[in-house]
């Protein structure tokens, strides 16, 4: 697989759908819609919607039929980035190589843009895929994603991440934060693809577990890049985790051990992906992409 060409085509397809789904920038209230679009079309990798479509394909479904639902995961992700960057949380001024939303617009509008994107995501999941045959799966999709991003998932992980700042290294706490803050949404993306393809319970569970571990891989890579990357390559401010005293893999285990864990988990996930979709599939390619990314 030419992964670069595949991801470029996927991003183009997903961006086109996002453009259709979001309110126009000149629709009332214009500044809110401008801020929403500024955040969504800021150069994201679209990993989560790509994973929804890949898991759907691997589960025997039609990835084109889940395009809009996959985009809902990108809206959730973008909301989380807007809020993470706020002064009250990570206080970052750079995201994807551009000023963060609260810098480009203002803090109140950034909060409301995040709120609007999260709400829009559930409107999309409640609507797509269309048709009575998908009604039960649409409802289950909303339940699945809500559980992944709520107080016992992504938001809970963000809270513990804040509470753990500046505390002594704690491997168990680090694992819990990463699995909730990052792993839960990526796990939901993979499970959502299987769900919308009408996979049975055991199949869904296998895809969900793979996705959660892929999310952990993503966050370990992110932790390493915060130490080794540059603002130019990352598109965001490097070194902020260490400066803020965040719990990260390099902070708890050291950079060499973090790299070893990254390699071991990537190797295990590559084997797991092969069991889920056969050799040369998209999920396996995404494991390599997540492990070797430079931003």
Please, could you describe this protein's structure?
It is a single chain. This protein has 295 residues and is mainly α. The chain has a single domain, classed as Farnesyl Diphosphate Synthase. The protein has 15 helices and two strands. It has helices at 3-21, 30-40, 47-58, 67-84, 101-104, 107-127, 135-149, 154-163, 171-196, 201-228, 231-234, 240-244, 249-253, 255-277, 282-292; strands at 94-95, 98-99. A hairpin with a 2-residue loop joins strand 1 and strand 2 (98-99).
Q: What is the 3D form?
A: globular
Please list the strands of the largest sheet in the order they lie side by side.
1-2
What's the oligomerization state? Answer: single chain
Helical stretch tally: 15
Give the averaged pLDDT, no decimals: 94
CATH superfamily: Farnesyl Diphosphate Synthase
Overall CATH architecture: Orthogonal Bundle
Q: Whole-number radius of gyration?
A: 18 Å
Number of domains: 1
Biggest sheet record: 2 strands, antiparallel
| Cα separation of the termini | 21 Å
Query: Roughly what fraction of the amino acids lie in strands?
Result: under 5%
Instruction: Tell me the name of the CATH class.
Output: Mainly Alpha
CATH topology: Farnesyl Diphosphate Synthase
Helix content: over 70%
Order of helices and strands: HHHHEEHHHHHHHHHHH
């Amino acid at each position: 697989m030419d992964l670069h060409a595949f991801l470029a085509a996927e991003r183009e397809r997903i961006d086109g759908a996002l453009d259709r789904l979001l309110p126009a920038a000149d629709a009332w209230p214009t500044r809110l819609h401008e801020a929403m679009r500024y955040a969504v079309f800021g150069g994201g990798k679209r990993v989560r919607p790509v994973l929804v479509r890949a898991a759907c394909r691997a589960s025997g479904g039609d990835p084109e039929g889940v395009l809009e639902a996959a985009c809902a995961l990108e809206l959730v992700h973008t909301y989380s980035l807007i809020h993470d960057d706020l002064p009250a949380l990570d206080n970052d001024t750079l995201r994807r190589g551009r000023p963060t939303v609260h810098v480009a617009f203002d803090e109140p509008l950034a909060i409301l843009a995040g709120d609007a994107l999260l709400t829009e995501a559930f409107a999309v999941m409640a609507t797509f895929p269309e048709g009575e045959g998908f009604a039960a799966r649409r409802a289950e999709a909303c339940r699945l994603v809500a559980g992944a991003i709520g107080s016992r998932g992504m938001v809970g992980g963000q809270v513990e991440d804040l509470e753990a700042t500046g505390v002594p290294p704690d491997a168990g706490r680090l694992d819990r934060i990463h699995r909730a803050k990052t792993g839960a949404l990526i796990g939901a993306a993979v499970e959502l693809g299987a769900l919308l393809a009408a996979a049975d319970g055991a199949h869904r569970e296998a895809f969900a577990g793979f996705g959660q571990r892929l999310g952990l891989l993503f966050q370990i890579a992110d932790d390493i890049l915060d130490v080794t990357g540059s603002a130019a390559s990352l598109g965001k401010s490097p070194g902020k985790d260490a400066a803020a005293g965040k719990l990260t893999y390099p902070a708890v285990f050291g950079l060499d051990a973090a790299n070893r864990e990254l390699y071991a988990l990537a190797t295990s996930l590559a084997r797991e992906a092969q069991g889920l979709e056969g050799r040369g599939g998209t999920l396996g390619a995404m494991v390599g992409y997540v492990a070797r990314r430079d931003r």
